[in-house]
Amino acid sequence: MRRNETRRNEIISTTDEEVKEEDIIGEEKFEISKDAFKFPVNCCSKKTILANKKLSINAIEFSYSVWQCSKCKKEYLDSEQAKRLEKFWMLEKVMENRSIRMERAMNFDGKTFFFRFPKEISKGWHKGDLVDINLINSENNMFFIEIKHQH
Ligand SMILES: [Zn+2]
Q: In sequence order, what are the residues at sequence separation of 6 or more whose Cβ sits closer than 8 angstroms to the Cβ of residue 140?
């Protein structure tokens, strides 16, 4: 498994169209059960209460809330908070250079700039899927891109 870890920081080269599937599958994923609970949930036969939490990486603070049991202190995340936390963890991976990275050549057709995604990554994408682009920093041309399926 060492192999996967060392590979994590490599930049997949532009000349190589093929991104090996194990590069993608080898990534860890956070399992958060979405909509598994109705909120507020009961724990220790009592209603959980909303508690504010804070996380920080490199001086970036992130606030979120959890439903906490006042007795056993167990925390439950609702799906909205879970999604926010997942995004934060993703950004953390990017900042710590633990994310899978790719370099692609920028294309220009005379009007529009575009680049191609490797087909190993775009499996299951459909024409008409929504591309959600968050501008992070315009000076550095940094974006957070999310492909959303329209079903
Ligand atoms: Zn409890």
A: none
Say whether pTM exceeds 0.90.
no
**Distance from Cα 47 to the centre of ligand 1, integer Å:** 9
Q: Do both 45 and 77 map to the same domain?
A: yes
Q: How many domains does the chain have?
A: 2
End-to-end CA distance of the chain, in Å? 36
What are the residues whose beta carbon lies below 5 Å from ligand 1 (ion)?
43-44, 69, 71-72, 74
Q: Are residues 89 and 129 in the same domain?
A: no
Distance CA 104, CA 107 (A): 9
d(CA 39, ligand 1 centre) in Å: 14
Range of the domain at 129: 1-27+100-151
pLDDT tens for each residue of 58-80 = 778 889 999 999 999 999 888 88
What is the CA(67)–ligand 1 centre distance, in A?
11
